[in-house]
Every structure is written in structure tokens, then in C-alpha cells.
Amino acid sequence: MNEPIIRFNHVFKAFGNTRVLNGVDLTIHKGEITTIIGKSGEGKSVLLKHIVGLLEPDSGEVLYEGRAIHSLKPKERKAIKSKISYMFQGTALFDSMTVYENIALPLVETTQLKEADIRSRVGRQMEQFDLTESADKYPSQLSGGMKKRVALARAMVTEPEIILFDEPTTGLDPVRKNTVHSMISGYQKKYGFTAVLVSHEIPDVFYISQRIAMLDQGKIIFQGTPAEIRSVRSPEIRNFIQGIENPKDELTGMETRTAVEKRFEQEMARMVSHHIDFSLVLFTFENLAEIHRHIGFLAGQTVLMNFAGFLRQQMGIADTSSRLGLNRIVVLLANTNRERAKQFCERIAQEIHGENLLSIQPYPGFCLSIQAGFAQAASDMSMEELIQQAEMSMNTLLEFKIC
User: Fold this and answer.
1) Are strands 211-216 and 33-37 parallel, antiparallel or unpaired?
2) 3-state SS string over the chain?
3) Is the confidence at residue 403, as pLDDT, over 80?
4) Which of 98-102, 212-216, 390-394 has the lowest mean pLDDT?
5) Structure-model confidence comparison of residues 368 and 268, the more confident one
6) Which Pfam families match (predicted)?
7) One domain for residues 146 and 240
8) Are residue 221 and residue 305 in the same domain, yes or no?
9) What is the pLDDT of residue 196?
10) What proportion of the chain, given as a percentage, has pLDDT over 70?
């Protein structure tokens, strides 16, 4: 387990007669993505502002690497602030500044770097985010997705240890929403920064987060992994997640993980009572990160969306499917034994073509690798155990050149 970098110890905060934080205890671990969820108006953004130092607690402590921030000398507090970046809700780009000027702003205002060094660092950042050709454009000339990229580039240009994201996907369509999530996850893995998100995008944020914290009535009522919050028995937490969770995955049009788990239980009951077989197929995109790196995050999400659409056309009316993560899709095949599940995979491999997946031309010689594993359910087996069996049987299903 990674060491804590930020810790809230019994933090209270009120604005006038309205108490927003009511004894918050929260641990943020170094080098991980932690997402804070909860109802609107519960104080999630207030938590972020305590981390960055825009607000101070009325009582309790916010600690950075074990030291109470409010008790530090001004110079020490400034040093901590310099390690934290904030990606504001709605991007907060300056309309009168170009893309280059927006990204350079934190370096101009908070560092003593020479102009040539600023140009060099901003240039590298724009190249990494595929913004070089837009350097002289203004925010009004950019799409919503490009504005998010500029905001993320600006947040990362100071090479921070911690980046705070306040509703980073607000107002985006499903493809670009998932593109931003993939972008955050991809760059976090590449650079190792600690990320704290405030988001309502359930279950999408479960795919990229190592930890989830739920804020309710001013207190953290859950801290744990995405798997742990899915299995929690608290009616309060379960009702919130099921109430806010989209009925369908917006990117793929598939069922949610919750719906597939319910279907698994139904199929298991049918198998036990009527001896009707069913199987699970797991598809994994092995080199989606390579698509992100060479073609862009939007192209990677387009691949997932197109593959899911093709897959739904091949499924039977009683079958169901869901995303399991950023690069995995699971299919439950009703009335299907292991041999028929294998035949289903073989049919997919024969009928799908590269041009069906990528809507733009990648670099020459690129091979998209999709692996498929399949397993037949046995009595008293959990869905996780069936997924593990499918993983153990994985073979390269699709590997072809898209030129």
C-alpha cells in the first residue's frame, strides 16, 4: 500500500450557520487516483479547496506528509502549494489568452524560469497533449474536449505531485467524457502524480480509481477500493450508487456492471434448478495504451465504442455484456457451454475487421491486439471466480494490421 500524502483528521468547516464538513476523516495515498463521490452540495469541492489551501478548517487538521498544513510557516506552506495543481470545473481557461499563454501561465506566475525555459516546457506539454497546432488559438475556437486537454496540460506543466480535478468531465459527450478519464489515468500512470477527483460519473470513475471515498452529510462514510464499494451492504451507499449509476454504459451502450451481476445470479439460479449451462467471455484490449500514445485518447475510446457495437450485433437476445474497466469487456452467454463460447469467439475473430474499429488511420504497421478468454460456469461459483477462469484461458483472438 502506498504511503498517505494527504490526511484529514476530524475536519469541520462551516459557512455562516451552514456546516459543510462535519468531522471528515480521509486518507489520500501517494501515487494513486482517489475519487470523492456523493450527492450534490455535500462539500466535495470544499474538500479539494482545503487540500490546495484555498480554505482552512474551523477545527481539525489537514496534514501533508504527516505535517499539519495550517501550523506551518508561510514559506513552508507556499512550498507545498507549489506541488499541487487544480483543474477547475469548466476548465477556467482565460478567454483573452491563447492556448500557449494559458498553459504557460502557472510557470510565469509561480516560477523564476527564463522565457526560453518556459517556451521549452510548454512546447513539450503541448506536444504530449497534441496541442501544438492549436498554440495560437483562443478558447472560443476550441472544442469542449480540446479545452479539457488544455486545462490538463496547464495543470501538469509545473510537474506537480498532486493534481485536483473538480468534475473534469462536466458537459462532455460520452466519448469525450471517457477520453478525459483515459487521459487522466494514462498520464497518472506515466508520471506517477497523486490525483484526487470529484465526480458523479459512476461507474466510469471506478475504472480509473484505486480508491473511492463517499461524502455524506459532511462525513466520509466509505473509503476503499472500487471492488469494495460495489460489495458493501450499506443500503445508504448502495442506493446512492444504483440511483446515480447510468442504466446503460454511455460509451458502449452495454449494461452496467450491477445489471450484469444481477443477470449472473439469475443464470446461476437457472443452472442449479434446471441444469441450463451458461458461460462468460472476457475481451481484453492488450495495447490500447499504444493507441492512446500514437493516435490519441479519443481514438482509443472510438475503438472501444466500435467494438462494443459490433459485439452487441453478434450477441443473442438473452445474452448480456458490460465494461469491466478501461480496456475490458465481459459477455454472459445464456444457454451456452464452453465449446459454444469458444465458437462465439471464433466467429467474432472471423467477422470483425480493422476498419470496423478505427475510424481514423493509425501509423503504418500498427497491430491491434484483442485477447479473449472464456469459461463455463459451475455451481457455487462467484462471478469473480468465473472471470478469473476466463482470464486463465486467454488467447490472442484478434491481431491484425490496420494500414
Assistant:
1) parallel
2) CCCEEEEEEEEEEEECCEEEEEEEEEEEECCCEEEEECCCCCCHHHHHHHHHCCCCCCEEEEEECCEEHHHCCHHHHHHHHCCEEEECCCCCCCCCCCHHHHHHHHHHHHCCCCHHHHHHHHHHHHHHCCCHHHCCCCHHHCCHHHHHHHHHHHHHCCCCCEEEEECCCCCCCHHHHHHHHHHHHHHHHHHCCEEEEECCCCCHHHHCCCEEEEEECCEEEEEECHHHHHHCCCHHHHHHHHHHCCCECCCCCCECHHHHHHHHHHHHHHHHHHCCCEEEEEEEECCHHHHHHHCCHHHHHHHHHHHHHHHHHHCCCCCEEEECCCCEEEEEEECCCHHHHHHHHHHHHHHCCHHHHCCCCCCCCCEEEEEEEEEECCCCCCHHHHHHHHHHCCEEEEEEECC
3) no
4) 390-394
5) 268
6) ABC_tran, GGDEF
7) yes
8) no
9) 96
10) 93
Query: What is the reported pLDDT for 11?
Result: 96
> What's the total number of domains in the chain?
2
Cell numbers for 188, please give them.
497518472
296's grid cell:
490519441
Structural domain span for residue 361: 257-401
Kindly report the pTM of this predicted structure. 0.84
Residues 160 and 17 in one domain: yes
Q: Tens of pLDDT along 128-170?
A: 777 889 999 999 998 877 888 888 889 889 889 999 998 888 7
Q: What is the CATH number of the domain that holds 20?
A: 3.40.50.300
Domain boundary (244, 276, 293) is at 244
State the Cα–Cα distance between residues 223 and 369, nearest whole angstrom.
35
Residue 251 lies in a domain: no
Q: Comparing 250 with 270, which gets the higher pLDDT? A: 270
* Same domain as 152, residue 222: yes
